[in-house]
Amino acid sequence: MLEIICLIWLWRVNGKHAIERGQNPKKYRALTLGLWFGLEFTGTFVGAWLMQLLNAGDNAFYGAYVFGIIGAAIGGFTSYWVAKKAPMGNYRPEDQPNGWNNQSGGWNQSQNGWDNQQNGWNQNQNSWDNQQNGWNQNQNVWNNQQNVWEQPQQEPDCLFAPATIHIIEEEGGYTGGQDAFFLNGRPICSLRPGSEYTFTTYAKKNVLTIGRPTPELSDETTALKFIAGEKGQIEIHACAGRLLPGKFSNYTA
């Protein structure tokens, strides 16, 4: 039972690491099962053979079992290392949540921060809008059915004309390394020092991260949130695994 639990856990972890590296998780999950069971059976066979050579008698079964466990452990560690060090790719899972629509995202929780019950512009108990407030009754212009803060059409998630994003990986920091960039949780590119990359996006609200889709440290050196304008020009600088917010620029045509 413990072996099955460990295998399921490793199967999920390796799939997660593969997605973070922009790889299809199915390949690495299959590799996990193959290495685990393959080396386990190999270890069991080798253990039984050695026990027979040593004339272990009744202890032959235990020796084969121990060698099988050792083989499974080696296979599990190997699959974990391979998934962890997988090369950067461009795989994009269809159901991957982005930085604007997950329960942890400060920009867009399940009830979007632009229009939810906790929003300071439209709470049922808001001092600007309750039945007892003489300044703001149900017909008050601050909160009626025509209020622009409550009309989703006023804050579309997509742009009619795409914005251009230019990423520049500056020289210095380290030699031979490269940084991976993600936009809204999806892999975009991997740059070496002195290189750059340009692409377009129709998303209005964006989160660009470096190193991984959802970095553990949520500061401006690892995650940069910005709102793109139609035909806008965004320039982002990075160096040695860190974003440079001081050089960030965002122009709207």
TrEMBL record:
Keywords: Membrane, Transmembrane, Transmembrane helix
UniProt protein name: Uncharacterized protein
Species whose genome carries this gene: Coprococcus comes
Stretches the record annotates as Disordered: 93-138
Spans through the membrane: 30-50, 62-83
Domain of life: Bacteria
Keyword Transmembrane recorded: yes
Biased composition (Low complexity): 98-138
